[in-house]
Design brief:
Layout lengths: L1 E7 L8 H12 L2 E7 L6 H15 L3 E5 L10 H9 L3 E11 L2 E8 L2 E8 L2 E5 L11 H8 L39 H10 L5
Parallel strand pairs: 1-2, 1-3, 3-7, 4-7
Antiparallel strand pairs: 4-5, 5-6
Helix pairs in contact: 2-3
């Protein structure tokens, strides 16, 4: 099985989730392809379109990426990628196990833990509690330096990354007016009926 890891780089360092995603892929086994994504200035949809083009080129069975992307930490890229590919997705994975053609993903929710089963191929976004990351040894760093790197530009993948949204203006919300104390229910009903006109 081939797993594609999206290693997000902000121009100075890899995001912390990258170590967890690589460790998860090593535990699954099979071929691991790593895409170092450095498109911090792109909007989430443009990043997802680029990732879709790479997925179609590489044909992995599983795409693993951090739950928040370097674009603006909005937790959108993984979900958008899954939607563009038409693949199932599991988000905030704190445990990942592959069983045949399915992925068992455990995630933390408000009430405790939830385990979902999704068919492969799939997109999984990870939580930092996924595993204890394995750090790269010096011999493996030296081996990695000898690997050939393929640099892909959006144009070569046929992806238009022109911004679709523009921030026109950012304004703070107005100050809230102070509340009013009322003596009893009758006074409250009177204010709601006559001043606020909501009843």
């Amino acid at each position: 099985m081939t797993t594609l890891i999206v290693a997000e780089h902000d121009g100075s360092a890899l995001q912390p989730a990258v170590l967890h995603t690589v460790t998860a892929a090593q535990e699954i086994g099979g071929d691991i392809h790593i895409l170092v994504e450095t498109a911090a200035e792109l909007q989430p949809l443009a990043v997802a379109k680029l990732l879709k083009a790479v997925v179609q080129k590489e044909s992995p069975k599983l795409v693993i990426l951090g739950k928040q992307a370097i674009d603006d930490d909005s937790n959108q890229t993984g979900q958008m990628l899954a939607a563009l590919l038409g693949w199932p997705q599991a988000t905030f994975a704190s445990k990942l196990k592959i069983e045949g053609e399915k992925a068992q993903v455990t995630r933390e929710v408000d009430g405790g833990l939830e385990t979902v089963s999704i068919k492969i191929p799939a997109v999984v976004t990870t939580d930092l509690r996924l595993n204890e990351p394995r750090y790269v040894t010096l011999p493996n760093i030296m081996k990695a330096k000898k690997k050939t790197l393929e640099v892909l530009k959006p144009e070569a993948l046929g992806v238009d990354v022109a911004p679709r949204l523009a921030t026109v203006k950012v304004v703070e919300p107005g100050k809230r007016k102070a509340g009013t104390k009322v003596a009893d229910i009758k006074a409250l009903v009177d204010k709601l009926r006559n001043e606020a006109k909501v009843i």
